[in-house]
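Journal club prep — side note

Before the paper discussion, L.F. wants everyone to see what a predicted structure for a comparable chain looks like in token form. Sequence:
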Amino acid sequence: MGRVVSIGELIVEVMRKRVDSPLDKADDFIGPFPSGAPAIFIDQVARLGHQAAFIGAVGDDGFGRCLLDRFAADGVDASAVAKADGVATGVAFVTYFSDGSRQFIFHIGNSAAGRMPEVRAAMFLDADWLHICGSTLSAGEDMRKACYRAVELAVDAGARVSFDPNLRPELLGGEEALRRVCGPVIDAASLVLPSASEAEVLTATSSAGDACRTLLDRGVQVVALKRGSDGCTVFSGSEVVEVAAFEVEAVDPTGAGDSFDAGFVVGLTEGLSLEQTGRLANACGALGATAQGPMEGCALRDEAYELAGLVS
């Protein structure tokens, strides 16, 4: 089994119990649930049976223990997760609406999530992959510098880089700034996992297919285009593979894309074909949406492989 490293924000999520309950009114919440896009990704990697390690920070509080307990239960190496002094663990409040939309209030900027520990070369000596999320690149200069340093050390150690754009243009001052911030990671990436709109923004093109081919021309080896309920399209060299989605009863879509990313990285690590890898990623993404809470749907290896129709 390969070893995968992720870096970024560790937060908990607290959500409304009822749909259509706005965050400016008094109502009941449930939680905390462990969250953070790179954290969901690495937890799913661990649950698929691979070595998984995380670089980040929590506060010395109950929310921090919630996150660390989840990593310990699922086998994520948290030795590079620091406990930041004087700040609380990051938190997001979320509510869902019947039209499928969501509303968030984030408390991250002044939390432990942004207090990244020093990124050390030893973390990557035996790593197969480093995973970076655009949400982390958007979370401030310190987080961005830590990601760039991690990419440099991972590439030097021979690890491949995967990148989920998870774009936050409003946090970076527009699309041009976003392309500039994401550029160093894309230039190092072997795998990029965008939605259609993200691919178009990253490449300043108006067609998802053209955008994915532009990323390949830039040196990316595989682009896995996420298409939600339509599955995914995988681009590699001259090959284009369409992979259908799996039908499930969706409960909470938060984190499903991160679970998809983990399934794709694991599939490539295990030497599956592009079509098989797409099926595993789609299975993880689908199962990720079947439980309330961002990490609660992260699939165990046997159930993900069973849904994907693969031999574990």
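L.F.'s comment for the group: The chain has a mean pLDDT of 94. Keep this in mind when we get to the figures.
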